[in-house]
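Worked Example 4.2. Consider the chain below.
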Amino acid sequence: MKKITKAVIAVAGYGTRFLPATKNQPKEMLPIIDKPIVQYLVEEAVDSGIKDIILITRVGQSTLENHFDTNLELEIQLEKSGKKEALETVQKVYKMANFIYIRQGRHLPYGNATPLLCIKNIIDKDEPFAYMFGDDLVKGKPPCLKQLINVFNKHKPTAILAVQRTPDEELSRYGTVKYKKGSKINQITKLLEKMPPEKAPSNMAQFGRFIFTPKVIRTAVEHFEKGKFGKDNELWVADLLNELAKKDRVIAQPIKGKWLTTGDPLRYMKTMVEFAIEREDIGPEFKGYLKSLNLK
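Applying the procedure from the previous section yields the following structure tokens:
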């Protein structure tokens, strides 16, 4: 197996929960204070040793593509104004990695595994890669992806998914894993989507961080070509992993750090607060403001 140097970020959704804000911009371009969600994902990947960032987009997402490109007019203006720090901040964005954009065609089915169909000719047959959902952020040291990469390099499974212990009241929102009895490497036998707490196989919820081998892509292509779709006639990562887990090693790795989601307005705002209170420049004053609110 080759070294992991590519990360695929799925950002082709419509962000319907955030309309009308997402009518003309990708949800992943919504800011967490002064940085779009997708940039946090890219920075995590880069900090984990990733060189190439593959963004799976859809038509109408030029703002996302432009964000990771140069803006010559802005840079000239910042340089003329002597705003060196702001100039360096802007230039850092497009210097972080090599960016590749692939449009997800409308002929493809909907689903969180569909971007895998778009990369079948880009990932080599012996090349593992990182796969990221655009909704999830993780505050952790080492970075979440780096933790997964370390486990992959040690055990060489077919796939690894990140999981974290989740309260019962939140469990039904996510997929939960069933661990293989006696496994010492967190191997699973099944991933069940959105089960109520009393039926969930564990309290370990899966979120949008994975390390996949090309076998996962081949399985996605096979499901697509044979019309093997899951719930709501969509192509689901969970269905692919459940099929692979029957014969291969699929690991659900608990992550050290805090998983935060931006998938809906409430959790997006909670994530915003989490990041704001940790900022050295605005954190202390923002904490003071929160304490001053007369909340009932």
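The chain has eleven helices and 13 strands. The CA atoms of residues 54 and 122 lie 10 Å apart. Compare this with Example 4.1 before moving on.
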